[in-house]
Amino acid sequence: MKKAILGVFLSLLCIESVFSQFDAQFSQYMFNQSAFNPAAVGEGEMIQIAGQHRIQWVGIPNGGQTTVFSINSPLKIGNRLHGLGFNFFNDRVGVFLNQTAHLQYAYKKHMGAGVLSVGVDVGFVSIGIKADSILAHKITLGDYHDLTTDPDPAIPQVNVSGMSFDMNVGIYYSTPKFYAGISYSHLNSPVVNWNENAGINLKGSLFLTGGYNYILPDTKYVFKPSGLLKTNFNTMQLDLSTRLEYDNKYWGGISYRFQDALILIAGLNIAGGLSIGYSYDFPTSKILTASSGSHEVVMLYSLEFVFAKRNSKYKSIRIL
Fold first, then answer.
1. What residues have CB less than 8 Å from 144, skipping those under 6 apart?
2. In total, how many domains does the chain have?
3. What is d(CA 103, CA 211) in angstroms, rounded to the nearest whole number?
4. How far is CA 294 from CA 33, 49, 239, 299, in A?
5. 42, 59, 74, 229: which one has the fewest Cβ atoms less than 10 Å from its Cβ?
6. Domain-embedded: residue 142
């Protein structure tokens, strides 16, 4: 598998630029939507802090690990509603290290029974290569090309990284019963160059998401179906999810990512605005022969910031 990953990497570096779907994958997308849609910042009336960590394809060396941290808050200036946030990604897969950091803003307006938000985030994207991992695996291509004695100039001989400006946009509409959003990442198609021979041109991805909250009559149960469609217009990925929540404390559910995985989701609201969720992806593709699946944990903390005349205080309340 290591040789396969290195082989794919080498084939990509043999061209001037790399075109691929860059954005990380999360199974519990419904809990941290500002990670892929800046218009979702400032939803509700509380500050939300979120952290997610995903271990991708356990059993496959360098299968990937992704961590995301975000914080966002609503803001009211006069009669105007706004949302502010910060989002940070750290993604390791194969020999690549990808990092992004964005400041997020959303303008909100009451419309009908809900709130319409238009958002943008601006920041940077950094992509690096661990060249020492490549050089540690000597590969011979055919009888006439030995990378040990005749290195390809497109393959860095030392660890390299590059950085570029990045911009994402989105629209989000939410009511107490349902929500829907559309967003587009890497609007400016950032180019990250490592050297004169190699670099990455990031193409954007389109995200479509939606969900509904249905309260079962005469019970404390709430049924919450949702979905996420992601495409870079060459490939497409679709997640369909169902969750059942009890008494605003516990939830469990199942998702299906087409041609990829069956996903189990569970979580609880612990206390004082703190919530934790876990998901396990069981592969349904041929990758099952090499991996036992993927694991993901999400932690959320929600709090209300109350301004007083002389002092300020924090009040934590349970949400989700």
1. none
2. 1
3. 25
4. 20, 24, 15, 17
5. 59
6. no
